[in-house]
Amino acid sequence: MIDLISWNVNGIRACEKKGLYDFLAAESPDFLCLQETKAQTEQLYGKFLAPEGYKSYFSDAEKKGYSGTVTYVRETWGEPDAVYTLGINEFDAEGRTVFLDFPGFTLVNAYFPNSQDAGARIDYKIRFCTAMKEKLDELVAAGRNVVLCGDYNIAHKPIDLARPKQNEGNPGYLPEERAWMDEFIDGGYTDTFRLFNQEPDQYSWWSYRFKAREKNLGWRIDYFCVNDGFAPEVGNARIHQDVMGSDHCPVSLTLKRSPR
Question: The whole model's pTM is what?
Answer without folding.
Answer: 0.97
